[in-house]
């Protein structure tokens, strides 16, 4: 349990990062006019952590096989601490991007290492539940990030504190990991087959030429891609912005409502821990995807109705977006609507967003990490997991959220994700076998 908690702090790191940037970005755009004027710059600040995670995930598998699980986690912690300090001390938005890349590199490495490390130390009967602690800490990190965002919302240098505090949890993990052993299965692999001296590309070639590994990759990549294309990162990275699109203009109100999604995410992860070893991985993912598709369709309808039933405009209500006008408005204690308009559908949108999270968390939210820890032979476990992680860190989704909103509208964006989710459900049904129990790998 100590090992699962210590390694699972990886989830806390990732969860805090996704939650904190969604709140901090509201204040970053207030401090930097260029960020407010250029949608692509705000998207880049948010998504560069994903770009770093792609690179980190690509080399994380090789690092795991070459240097072991423990050293990989320690190295990722150093990267995460560095990135947090850089973001907290920046003077312009471009340096924030550099810090986000450092954080992403750390997240990419540890995102596949921690579940693997926990998996290799867990007995089969509770293996799924212990790996799910990683997901529970992830949702806990998201909840913590919104609390911290609210705490620093009216503090001078608010977003700097929000981003800087992110360096605390990797420091705690680094200290705890120093007292934990290396994975016994990795040590066994070292002892029986010698040093894993293969380079990255030769390792990839060997993995792909192995029929068992290749079949596992079909399943592993499928579940990781499906996890991203249900649109979850847009919800987690831009949750306060979505709340504003639904008609809640205040930054603090949007942050407070975002706490609902993180609480439900944590509750859903607990459900996964209770049922994943009992009902199986594949069944949970299929039920989860059906619920997600239903919620996305309803959300699309809700946002469309909200756009149709916005209050009628009056002369002077459509104002030029600039710092002077916005400052004058707020100085008179008026509400400044940058995204969306007040609507009677806003509260129903928040409720269905909660149902979406409840559908996501117990299944497709946590199970892909369990599956990818389970389906590869020991020799290729790090490489296979690394390839799957790269496919999980999808830059397209987070980089295009605001652009898609401007182009398709909120309703069209959610409908698009419903279409992607339907494709993901079909792929999971045909490509993913059950991996519950000791004999699962024989079936694969």
UniProtKB/TrEMBL annotation:
The keyword Transmembrane applies. Residues 3-436 form the Major facilitator superfamily (MFS) profile domain. One of its GO terms (molecular function) is myo-inositol:proton symporter activity. It is a multi-pass membrane protein. It comes from the Eukaryota. Keywords: Membrane, Transmembrane, Transmembrane helix, Transport. PROSITE patterns: MFS (PS50850), SUGAR_TRANSPORT_1 (PS00216), SUGAR_TRANSPORT_2 (PS00217). It is found in: Membrane. GO terms for cellular component: membrane. Belongs to the major facilitator superfamily. Sugar transporter (TC 2.A.1.1) family. This is General substrate transporter.
